[in-house]
Amino acid sequence: METGAIPRSAIAGPFDLQATLESGQTFRWTREEGRTYLDPAPRGGEQWYRVVLDDGPVAVRQTEAAIEWRATGDATDALRRRLRLDEEMAAAVDALPDDPLPRAAASAFPGLHVVSEPFFPTLVSFILSAQMRVERIHDLVGRLSDRYGRAHEFDGETVHAYPTPEQLAAATESELREMGLGYRAPYVVETTRMVADGDLGREDVAGMGYEDARSRLTEFVGVGEKVADCVLLFSFEATEPVPLDTWIRRAIDEHYPEVEQSNYDETSRDIRARLGPEPGVAQTYVFHYLRHREHLAESPAD
DNA sequence: CTCCAGGGAGCCT
DNA sequence: AGGCTCCATGGA
């Protein structure tokens, strides 16, 4: 076991590990204490989070001085890429329009980073996300990993990687239904097959412009405009996508009533034009803020 | 009991 | 293209 630390001085701007990992962008990281990751844990509690990276399992926590990690090899570079530690999210925040909602969201979680997660896990996770609560998506992703992903020994425990397309291709629709995926089970089966067979993959989309890429991703079964936006935002480092989920749609009704919500394409363009130069970053802040603002008062002041 | 969750597919005009 | 209905499951 190796240990290491990325000092705060080596991170661009403010960073908040808990907000970053628990804001519904990625469902692979698990808090070591407690299975679900959105139970009301204290903010800033220096909890360890665990995930399996390409090189194996890693545990990460944030202290006042640094991002600390434990892993079987040097995890510094992989963490820098996943958590985008070299990028100054505050630049996008500073450029936010002078609207109350995005401003409040940004000041509530100043260290929230948009992540850069791998393609296939993100694709399947957000197929699962349809009509499902964030906590439950996290739970189901854990179940898929435990059953189909590669097992690693770590700290005397067994931890599982997210399954590869080839591994998940072994899952049948009835198996997935028994695991609780519901009507999403056949979507996962077919999309996994498409990726495993090379019908469509990350590299087919990587060079395209935003709207073309989004359209191409909807060729996957179970992937519509909204899920495609999530995949582009959280695994392609795209800055444009504003996933129009129920929370954001309600926020538009409330705070941007002049934005008409007829079809996805028009609504997307309209709201993107109002959220500054990196609307996807703004959206990520707003989403997390909307889901937590009623609990903010309970937390001790930062 | 009802309502809702980071929606999408299938079918109909 | 745009609208409607159905789809599993668990928690509040």
Structure report:
By secondary structure, the chain is α+β, with helices and mostly antiparallel strands. The protein is built from 15 helices and seven strands. The chain has a five-stranded antiparallel β-sheet with strand order 1-5-4-3-2, with no helix packed on it. The radius of gyration is 19 Å and the shape is globular. The structure holds a DNA duplex (13 and 12 nucleotides).
Give the topology string: H per helix, E per strand: EHEEEEHHHHHEEHHHHHHHHH
Overall body shape:
globular
Q: Determine Rg (CA atoms, Å).
A: 19 Å
Q: Structural class of the helix and strand makeup? A: alpha+beta
The pLDDT mean sits at: 93
**How many alpha or pi helices?**
15
Write the layout of secondary structure elements.
Layout: E1 2-7, H1 17-21, E2 30-31, E3 49-53, E4 56-62, E5 66-71, H2 76-82, H3 89-94, H4 100-108, H5 119-128, H6 134-148, E6 151-154, E7 157-160, H7 165-168, H8 173-178, H9 185-196, H10 202-205, H11 210-217, H12 225-235, H13 246-255, H14 264-272, H15 279-296
Antiparallel strand pairs: 1-5, 2-3, 3-4, 4-5, 6-7
The chain binds a DNA duplex (13 and 12 nucleotides) through residues 24, 126-127, 129-137, 177, 180-185, 187, 218, 221-227, 230, 243-248, 262-263, 287, 291.
